[in-house]
Amino acid sequence: MRLDLSSVEDFASAKHGRLKLQLFDRGDGLSSDIFRRSYQPVATRATDGRLWFATHKGVASLDPHHFTTPEREVPALIEEIHAERELIIITPQNRGNIVIPARTKHMTVRCSMPTLSKPDFTEIEYRLDGLDDRWYSTGTERVIRLYDLAPGTYRFLVRGIGTDGRPVEPADSVGMTILPAYWQTQWFRVLAIAAGVIFVAAIARLGVRRRLAQRELQLAQQEERARLENELQQMKRAEVIGRLAGGIAHDFNNILAAILGNAELARLEYGQNKDLADMLDSILSAGERARELIVQILSYSRQRRTEPVPLDIAPALHESLKLLRSGTPATVEIVTEIPESLPLVLADATEVHRILINLGTNAVQAMGPGGGRVTISAIESFGGEEAHPEIPRGRSVCLRVEDNGAGMDDRTLQRIFDPFFTTKELGKGSGLGLSVVKGIIESLNGVIVVESTPDSGTTFRVFFPIVSGSSVRRMVSPAAQPVMSDRAERIFLVDDEPQVLSVGRRTLEGLGYEVSAYGSATAALTAFLAEPRRWDIVITDFAMPGLNGVELARQIRTRRRDIPIILCTGFGGAVDAAAAKAIGVVCVINKPFRRQELSEAVAKALGKGAPASSQV
After folding, report:
1. Are residues 457 and 501 located together in one domain of the fold?
2. Over the stretch 406-430, which tens digit does the pLDDT of each residue have?
3. pLDDT of 102-119, one tens digit each?
4. Sign of CA dihedral 522, 525, 530, 531
5. 20, 41, 66 — which closes off a domain?
6. Number of folded domains in the chain?
């Protein structure tokens, strides 16, 4: 507190009842605001001359007779350190080592320096040992701010600069220890280095493994590429063979059409001669076998589309066995147990033939040069007779092909249905047989089961689901008579093969129709366009030079949309049914056709109700 001398004299002489006081606070360097808080600006003089003042801590007294002027400035003091959210009051007990919490970024050091002369002209300097040895001035500011000090031990010193410009000694000091964060500790650095080494090693190892994996992948890709190239070659080879087979089949069907047609006409003409009739029947029987062979060739070349029908497969199995026996070596015995008839299944005779021929051929080839025995049987199965997870429940027809050959191990068994997989020597098998068989069976909703033991033989079982007999009929028709014409309808017949054209004309004329035959599609179109209302029906070949049957039918329909058209083809199912129907084709018949089939197709097209062999 500072007293004005004139105020004291006026107070002492009773001129005024109050003293004019100047109270010091923290801004003047005091350590507290004791004379500011709850201050009552009154004072009382006692009889002994002492001055009494009211404060928030009680009453303070001053003796005017003992006022003295100090000889030097009071030294600066460090009062408190504010480490972000933590306030540390400096005491004699803790000033030796103040602990600052870890991760402290900002500290405020509050100092004081009381003076009785000119407080506005006193300055503060500080030094931080451990950082550098320089003194830094804060001017008249009593608050010192420190930022981002590294963890470690420091000594903080503060001193005042008097009004005469000289430092006021001694300097006040406190010891400080700033704690490090856990990542700044020695043990953490050691662990970090160790972790870094482990991480680098792991990355290196991962890189090595990745390079090895890439190398393995490259090798696998090379092997896969080689395998795919081999498969592609096999497929191209099969495609070439298929195209060749389709072309041969087309030409052969035209030849067969002439042979069978002429044989049938001769049978009708000379049927009374028994010896001649027997010879003609032999020709017809051989022609039918050749016809079935062409069906197989077309199926192989994928040019015949088959559709399953309710079928008794026993006759197809017997016919297939004849072909299988013809190519079997004498050292292999074929034992058959196939009844004359079996329950109806949803199948196609051609596909059944392919299944048995493939399975039977594999069984025969499994015998080796020493020969063996192949047993082929077909029975009705009820599903629960044998415990096997793949055997379907319910009624089915089971075709069984068993051999006592070399057998197969488990590894081979797992791959036998893979396309192009074969255990035969190079050039003796394409690896397509069993995969094709499996595809056929699955398309018929059937199941194939294989069991094999090395050196004990192999057994294939094929299960065809039985269809309800009440909703279907057996595909065995009695000997039907050809449908004859009762109105002598006029037929427009087109075929580029002279022999087939001649047989067709004579067959249709024998059925009572009036026939106009043309060997050129272009000439036929010209003739039809000249008199479009002359004919009742058009029968045309599919594959013809210049103008094929489909295009011919399309142009005929543009001139006359109500005329029915029958399309004949030697390529089996090469004609798309939907496309044919769109241009007015009412049915498609496959060469070589018999007299009965042709008569039924014409009757159906003319609306006489007879079933056609292949409707669109």
Report:
1. no
2. 888 887 777 777 665 566 554 444 4
3. 989 999 999 888 765 565
4. positive
5. 66
6. 4
